[in-house]
Design a protein that fits this description.
single chain; about 55% helix; Glutaredoxin; 9 helices; five-stranded mixed beta sheet; alpha+beta
Length: about 200
């Protein structure tokens, strides 16, 4: 079957067949660190180093990430079966902060099935969910688990971080290494709460 004749639902169904759980993704990243490698088509030293850094970040968030009680109640009361399909890569800095927090939320409700696929291995899927024409990750696609209908999307950053990036680009024209560090500090200070709030809004 030609790719251009596939519907979005077909592409999603194919990607789900290749998906992994968050636990499997974490195991993959840990293994890649041991092998001095990375996910994705770019296997440069820079990407390998980002994967190593992100493994440490994810390990920290896996241990320390928490959901505020008022938001916890909202997630626990959600009663529709959905799949949170996240497109990502091990080298992505935003993903290292966001994916463990998504997991904290998904663990609160059996109706939420959290799946992960790699961007460069799922090009057809990524092309359906571009951000301003770019293949930005992580990208969460919320699906009806029975029909694979797309209900909503989130990413590549929480709303507040997205606005920070937009404002900085408008003022400076490009994202600098200094701003990237500032963004990392924001993630650490926010402790995932803005991500959780966006996920609660996603659930409606």
């Amino acid at each position: 079957m030609e790719t251009d004749t596939l519907t979005v639902k077909d592409i999603i169904s194919e990607s789900l067949k290749n998906s992994m759980t968050y636990a499997e993704f974490r195991a993959l990243v840990i293994n890649l660190v041991e092998e001095n490698s990375t996910t994705g088509n770019d296997k440069s030293d820079a990407m390998v180093n980002y994967t190593q850094l992100n493994d440490r970040r994810m390990r920290r968030w896996d241990k320390t990430g928490k959901v505020a009680e008022n938001l916890k109640t909202k997630i626990e009361s959600f009663n529709k079966k959905v799949t949170w399909l996240v497109i990502s890569e091990s080298w992505c800095g935003d993903a290292a902060h966001i994916m463990p927090i998504i997991n904290k939320a998904a663990e609160l409700n059996d109706n939420i099935d959290y799946k992960v696929v790699l961007r460069d291995e799922n090009d057809a899927l990524m092309n359906q969910f571009l951000t301003n024409g770019g293949k930005a990750v992580p990208k969460l696609i919320m699906l009806d688990s029975k029909t694979n209908e797309v209900l909503n999307t989130f990413g590549p950053r929480p709303t507040i971080a997205t606005n920070m990036v937009k404002a900085y680009k408008e003022e400076h024209g490009t994202i600098t290494p200094e701003f990237k560090e500032e963004l990392q500090r924001w993630y650490n200070k926010d402790k995932g709460q803005s991500i959780i709030e966006d996920l609660v809004n996603l659930l409606g």
